[in-house]
Amino acid sequence: MKVVFFTGSGISDESGIPTFRERNALWEDYDPEIFASIASWRTHKEEMLHFHNEFRRLVLEKEPNAAHLFIADMQENHEVVVITQNVDDLHERAGSQNVIHLHGNLFEARSTQNPKLIYPWRADLNIGDKCDKGSQLRPNVIWFKENLNEKLVKQAENHIRSCELLVIIGTSLSVEPASEMPNLVDDDCRIIVVDPNPLPEHGNRRNTQIIQSTAVGSLDELRGLI
Q1: Is 103 among the catalytic positions?
Q2: Which residue in the list 44, 103, 159, 202 is annotated as catalytic?
Q3: Averaged pLDDT, groups of 10, the chain, 226 residues long
Q4: Which pTM value belongs to this model?
Q5: Buried b / exposed e across 84-102, counting CB within 10 Å, b at 16+?
Q6: Which helix (H) or strand (E) holds 105?
Q7: Which domains does the chain have, with CATH numbers?
């Protein structure tokens, strides 16, 4: 069976990774709307790189949780694709082999002049770090006011169209284009929504089951449904 897991910040939150929109000790001196916005790149390069360096270090201190490991384990018996809105690497570290990062990957750097020049990157990223063509590198993440990578969006859409089970976990799907993804499934595809506070419209979709729980808390019930 082909299973697509569509994941968001809720699954990483249970590993201790906050979202950009949360206020916490790490970013209490930063406004993410400024320091994670493409509009600020010209004037705040050093501050923006520092912001993402701090975030990268925090992610490296965290570990995949039981939900990440559960998804990876599903590969033993099913064709599994993970489509995530998260920029961390916890799915990969848990062992998932096919992961599409819709919002980019914190552990990659890319050229500011040629977005196709992408490099694996786990250390701090600083002013003066340049691509092979000589332009400054930046985190390969989608900042506020930037468009998603069309190629990755198409890949995600094609996987959702062809899956037999779509599991939405750790995301409310409240923003586009993620909000439209469940509408792409085939008529016979089952949908499972894992959300401690599910939106009313989730239950209106055909062949949809709701698990009102956190990602980790849902695993016993989820295991019985897959």
Answers
A1: yes
A2: 103
A3: 96 86 54 78 91 93 98 98 97 98 97 95 97 96 91 96 96 77 89 87 76 96 94
A4: 0.92
A5: bbbbbbbbbbbebeebbbb
A6: strand 104-111
A7: 1-15+64-103+148-226 (3.40.50.1220), 18-61+106-141 (3.30.1600.10)
